[in-house]
Every structure is written in C-alpha cells, then in structure tokens.
Design a protein that fits this description.
- The structure is a single chain.
- The chain is of the alpha/beta class.
- It is 43% helix and 22% strand.
- 19% of the residues are buried.
- Among the domains are: 97 residues, OB fold (Dihydrolipoamide Acetyltransferase, E2P) (Beta Barrel), CATH 2.40.50; 127 residues, 3-Layer(aba) Sandwich (Rossmann fold), CATH 3.40.50; 42 residues, no CATH class.
- The protein contains 13 helices and 14 strands.
- A five-stranded mixed β-barrel has the order 1-2-3-5-4.
- It starts with 5 loop residues before the first helix and ends in an 8-residue tail after the last strand.
- The longest helix has 41 residues.
Length: 401
Amino acid sequence: MKILEVSQVNRYIKELFSRDLLLSGIWIKGEISNFKHHSSGHMYFTLKDDSSTLKCVMFQTQASKLRFIPNSGMKIIIFGRVSVFERDGQYQLYCEEMQPDGLGNLYIAFEQMKAKLEKEGLFSVAHKKSIPFFPERIGVVSSRTGAVIKDIINVASRRFSGVQIVLFPVTVQGPTAAEEVVNAIKVLNNAKSVDVIIIARGGGSLEDLWAFNEEIVARAIFNSEIPIISAVGHETDYTIADMTADFRAPTPSVAAEIAVPDRKELDFRIYSITKRLMNSLRNSAVDARNKLDRVQNRTPFRQPLDKVYQIRMFLDMNTKSLIKKMSSEMQIEKNRLSNQVSRLGSLNPLSILERGYCVAEIPETDKIIKSVKEICKNQEINIKFIDGNVLCQIINMEKDN
C-alpha cells in the first residue's frame, strides 16, 4: 500500500484538472457575491447561482483590462479555467475575461465613469470656460481624412474666411486613440497657438466612440487652459468628452458655427451699432444746442452787468451802515472811557493833595502814617505836599481823644 502526502494528492488533482479540456477554457455565468478588490489589484469573489457557489480569482493583469468595475450582486459571464489551489486543496475559477450578463460591458463602464467624474465635479458648470467671440486661430483635433475636417473648414470659410484652422491629426478610434487625443490637447496648450480647440469625429457605435469616454481624455479636457468644444458623433451621441468640454456641439459643423462668427452677421451688427451711435450723437448734439439756447436766454447773459450793479448798490448800503454803526460804537466807548477817567480821578491821591492836604510817611519804608501810635518822639518823618516833600523831626506829639 502506497501512502501519499497531502501536497502530493493536491498536485495530482490539479494535474487532472489541467488535462481536462473543458475545464481549461470554460464560459460560466452567475452572480457575484463577497466581492473584494485587493490593494494588489487582484479581485477575489464568489460566483453563485440558485444552488451552488464557485470561488473565483482575477489577477491584476486581467483585472486592469476591464472597462467596468464589478461589484456584489452583478450578474456576469466569465471565461477562464478551473484549477486547484494546492496550498488549501481548493479548486477555483481563474478568470481571464469578464463581461456583464444582460447590459453591455461598455454601457456599464460608461455609466460608472460618468458617475465617478460627475462626483469629482468635472461636469460642473462652474468650471466651464467661455468660448472666445472672435478667435483668430482654431485648433481641430480630429482625423486627417474623412468628412469631419472638410465640414469644419467649409463652414468656417463660409462664415469668416480670415479665421485660420490648425489641424492636429489623431486616430479617433482604436486602442491608441485616447492617448493621441490627450497628447494633442497638451501640445496645443503648451504651444498656446490657438484660441479655441474643437475635438471632433463622425458618428458611430458606443464602441467606436469609446476613446472619448476614457478617463484620461476627460481629465485632459478638464485641465485644458484653452476652451474646448466637443463635437463627437451625431446629435444623439453623448460621450464623457461632451460632458467635460466647455461646450458641446451636436455635430462638427455646428461646432464650427459656434467657434467662428458669421461675417455677414458681424457686418450687420457693425452697421446697426454705427447707426445707433450716429443717432445717439445727433440726439446729443440737438440736446446740447437746446440747452445752450436756454442758457443764452437767461438774464445773466442778456443783461450781464445787472448783477454787478445790484452788488455795487448792496455794497454801498452796507458801507454806510457799517460807518454809522462804527461811529455809534466809538461814541459809546468815548463816553464809557470818560466815565472811567472821572471815577479814576476821584480815587487819585494826588487830587487830595491839591486841596491842601499832605501825607506823612516813614522815610525808611515809605509807609503812610495813619496814627500817632505808629511814631515816637524825636523820630524823623517825611511830609509829602502836592509840590514836594519835607523832612521833619517830631518834637512833641499829642493824642487826640
């Protein structure tokens, strides 16, 4: 009896699975549950139906190619191989391709990308740049061949022949289309040689237009400093590029009409503006003439010296009034001064001396003697008269009762 190790048994079972042609390349459909997107990029989930489950894994290399994001509850169809994970002795499905069961792969990817970018604000009106009214140079990102560039040139030439069209040829369909469109936007922005950019291509299926639903194209349009008009597909076609662009045109021809002003319309507007300006100037001149006539008919212009005469009369009257008032005030002041002089004269000690009185003073201090108590016998005193002084010596004194 041969005894095997666990690893040997698992390896043997794995070889049996690998030799089975059906299990080596099989399509399976079911519903995703327990979906986990690992930081490594690998996807781990369970595929189930009404009665069974199957462990599944999709490695980062294959997962990065998906155009939609799987999640639990989604019904899908998977192509892959069934094999054994030797360490756990568990068989599982190694997924190589995946697509939604029912809705198209691209449609789901479109809706998921739309929701993601809308949440980030790439479609917000607040970020839209205005299209210049009169661009001198227009950059067109489109195919070198086909009707699109011809339509744009024809419409632009018909509307205003002076506008220059600069074509930046790109592939508008296929695996390299998105990167070429992104590169064109970056080059035109760095060169700063155009005033507005038109991204255009003809109509087609969702898959044909898919390059304009790529995230890198949307972000390049959003980050462009030059305003961008998107004209991808026909009127009923809507792409992520249309939603991100500063203006969406239903067709390339309409994009040219939006970007290029109509020469005839400009001429008519110039004519209308000129006519309104001339009428305004004419009306202003008439109003100014009427105002001048009204001013000239006023009294100051008809009798310019009348005001001068009135002012002179007013000045004369005020002068007389002022002189009269000044004379009256001076007389009042003279009378007041005379009264003050009289009062001051009555208080003047010299006026007492004029009447024959004299003043006795102590010589050393010039103190006026008011009482006999202030002097003594043999003391010298000074007697002041109106016309001079006398130095005296007291011989005797007598107090008057």
